[in-house]
Amino acid sequence: MDLLTLSLLLLVVLCMLLGAGVWISMSLAAVGYLAMVTTSPTPGLFLAGAMWESTGSWTLAALPMFIWMGEILFRTRLSEELFNGLAPWVRRVPGRLLHVNILACGIFGSVSGSSAATCATVSKIALPELKRRGYDERIAIGSLATAGTLGIMIPPSIIMVVYAVAAEVSIVRVFIAGCLPGLIVMLLFSAYIVVWALLNPDKQPPMEPRLSFAQKMRASAQLIPCAILIVVVIGSMFVGWATATEAAAFGVLGSLVLAAVTRTLSWDSFRDSLLGATRLSCMIMFILAGAAFLTKAMALTGIPAALAEGVSALGLGPYGIIAVLVVVYIVLGTALDGVSMIVLTTSIVVPMIQQAGFDLVWFGIFIVLLVEIAEITPPVGFNLFVMQTMTGKDQGEVAMASLPFFMMLVVTLVLITLFPVTLVTGLPEWLLAR
Which of 157, 152, 149, 160 is nearest to 189 (CA)? Predict the structure, then answer.
């Protein structure tokens, strides 16, 4: 069987399995087994070896730890303290408390690593408060739906860990590389809110009384525990004191201490956080195991190398390849979650990216931004589901409210493509070379 026929057969089988509702991990493993049958007389041995290698990695141990840290903090009063601590500093800025949505999502995202958890947790506090004070509901919903995606851009990020393991690049480098793009996204979101507020002064409440600096500092004291946790987890990795796995363990310990100090840690919440982290970790690792087997099978068939050579022969050029991948990932994002998008495509896309001359760390941030866009792209945008559940609004209405912020993500995507070293790869190179 020639490579083209085999490729089409595998694609059709994969689409049929996914369309029939078969688990993604099982679908990947089944397609890998089918591909392996054409090249090896003992596909079962390759399946066992690939699954052990993909899940027995010390680096991958960071994944369940970061997930558990987020689960613990999800069940504390952290989001409420963030809102109350940040609110006094934006009272005089156009858009006022709408900026707290962006800041709170950015900070909570840095300790949760999950887009859906960030969106749900901050929205639970912010939406009732904004509605009570008379802010426009549409801009509030749109800002929360999109700012929630910062959970996968601001390190530590579950999606970044999955990509780093799948593409075999340094987790710490990917984490550091995500800092500036995450900050740019936050600034663009806030800039849009300022412009919107200046154009729509009637859709926000009257200016609140000015607070003294001492009053602002007293209100912000609630941010100290969260700030310490962020410094310990992220700072220890950035200065080289700890690996990603060790930092994740520190993060779990810190979140347990934080939950105990705030007296929100009960046996029930501890058990629920552990069960939630176990379920999500097992799901992701099962997907990674299926993807690892598929990757090995595809490598033996020679399909990725042939595809990379074929794309190179088209003469699209580096930016042409990037443009095609943007379209592919946006289409995939309408039907798949971020983890599935990454593990499904890594074995095919990474050889193409390397041949085109792109840095794999930069490409990791590029994919994360595309996953952020996918989180607010109907019909399977996870954050759209979260906001739809919390507001009772139609998904199309939530998507339209998110559209201006969606465009800010697109602008960020363009910026990191035009200035890859300045905005993405330069910072990890500088920090890790010291």
Answer: 149
